[in-house]
Design brief:
Layout (H helix, E strand, L loop, with lengths): L3 H19 L5 H8 L4 H13 L3 E2 L9 E2 L7 E7 L14 E8 L11 E5 L15 E5 L9 E6 L5 E7 L4 E4 L8 E3 L4 E11 L3
Parallel strand pairs: 3-5
Antiparallel strand pairs: 1-2, 3-4, 5-6, 6-11, 7-8, 7-11, 8-9, 9-10
């Protein structure tokens, strides 16, 4: 059986993470499900202890009423919007940044502002993946790309491109999602993965 202090801290950490991601608190049942607590009475016990310690406050008559007794976490992140990236130019070079846009932190999957940026799509190579010309992609520079992931990559000194990546035996294949376009094949040493696409935004 876990120590009460450890379990209580786990409850607190979960509440804090949930609020940071969703901008509202979890229910008691959601806490139980996430932490594998057997009964709601166990969760209520830990919540009461946290309240006694001054870490949270709640309104028992409301379902989602848990508040953290600390400065509220910043629920938004300001990300640089990158337009067309010239060949040989660093992706976040000052000349490439058009503006900064504030987004909900939950869209970033835990990424810091330094690890993420927005890229404006130029072209129609990924239309079958639902990515259209002019869309904004949230790109995470800290995530490892797996087979089939949509990434922003560079081949040699070429400009950045958005494609699905496949790690084949002798080469990397950058696959467009457009039947009229051919895949790009390049050696492992020639491909630089700038980041993994984790979300899409569309302006109307």
């Amino acid at each position: 059986m876990a120590k009460a202090g450890v379990t209580r801290q786990a409850v607190y950490d979960y509440i804090r993470s949930y609020i940071s991601t969703h901008a509202f608190p979890p229910t008691v049942r959601e806490i139980c499900t996430a932490l594998n607590l057997k009964s709601t009475s166990t969760a209520h016990m830990h919540l009461q202890k946290l309240e006694d310690e001054g870490k949270i406050k709640r309104n028992p008559s409301m379902q989602r009423s848990i508040e953290l007794c600390e400065p509220k976490p910043d629920l938004c992140r300001n990300l640089p919007l990158v337009g067309a990236v010239a060949a040989g130019s660093p992706i976040l070079a000052v000349d490439n940044i058009q503006e900064y846009i504030s987004l909900p932190a939950g869209l970033l999957h835990g990424a810091d502002e330094e690890e993420a940026f927005l890229l404006q799509v130029n072209g129609e190579s990924m239309i079958l993946a639902g990515i259209n010309h002019g869309d904004l992609l949230v790109v995470h520079r800290g995530l490892k790309a797996e087979n089939g992931d949509i990434v922003v990559a560079r081949v040699g000194e070429d400009s950045a491109t958005v494609k699905r990546i496949f790690f084949e035996q002798d080469a990397i294949r950058l696959q467009p999602e457009n039947p009229y376009m051919e895949p790009i094949y390049a050696g492992y040493q020639d491909v630089a993965i700038v980041g993994k696409v984790i979300a899409l935004l569309r302006r109307y």
